[in-house]
Write the structure tokens for this entry.
Amino acid sequence: MNIQRIVHLTPPLIAPDNIKEKIVCIRAHRERMFQISVESQQNKLIFHNYGQGGAGWTFLFGCVNESIKQFEEQCTLNSALKNESICILGAGCYGLLTAILLKRKGFNVHIIAAETENIPSNKAAGFFFPRPRKCSTPDEAATFLSLGIHSYATYLDIMNGKHPFIKAGPKLLPAYFGLDIDPGFGPYVEQELMNTSEKVTIDFGNGKTYEAMEYNTVFINSAAIMQELHRNIGELGIVITKAEIQEFGDVPEPIIFNCTSLGAKKLTQDKRLIPVQGHLITLKNQPPMDQLQYMINVKVVMTNALGKQRDELIYYAPREDGILGITFIRGQDSATANQHEFDRLLERCHNYFGT
């Protein structure tokens, strides 16, 4: 008879003196499918790469590779493009990585960004989560898979010291998902990029136990990779100009890579691009972090102010001294926190972790 393995975990501490910062993050989410395409407009050749929403780090390398592939296909059709200057709009992980790869290929690149510090790329919890969106078509789901596989393999290359210019950031950690959550890892296991999952019992040592699926997957230290990308930007001498572009015609270069996140809404009038507000809580005064090297992604049932029950999410990841999340409030573009969402997040985390 098979006996289900018990995993003993140290829970994060979430009393008031364990709360470091409450963060609101606005992400650009494109319904059904993110946008990777090319178009001609205002005498510009524009390569769009936006709308990844909360899965930006998950699909980073696959999406940027696909966007540059589209550019190289255009260069094959028109060799004169190889001599043109390129402007990258956006200084998040997509804009920085695009600029670095193009510069390393010999192109003259320049970044313009409305914001360079207070951006979603710096705030991510670090989950690799490649599941297609529920409304995606079969072809779109296949794109999610291929681009996710490319990104995951790249993260493994970084970990194994095989990446040409990123030397730190990801690491393999156990990740525990609720039984009702499919993170989309099946094909990764089939391609032997990830170990087979196992049903286990989590025991927090305080009376709180749960069944979950255990995966050994990549934790993405977004802050560390952003430092690596900025280091490369500096070493390559790529200039970042802080400015807000109102329309593509304001850009002097004839070739544009549009990696603008929420800015793409104004530039493209894309009706499927919507803001999504997320609430995150960073932690402090924790047990030794070597005891907290795991990830949690579960749904719990909570009762709202109207007395109605709804599923809500709990994320935990060991970013710095730990981070908790998350909300996914569609259509909300305000960076002002809904304070009750932080209260609800803490309530469900207290209930789940028992601390």
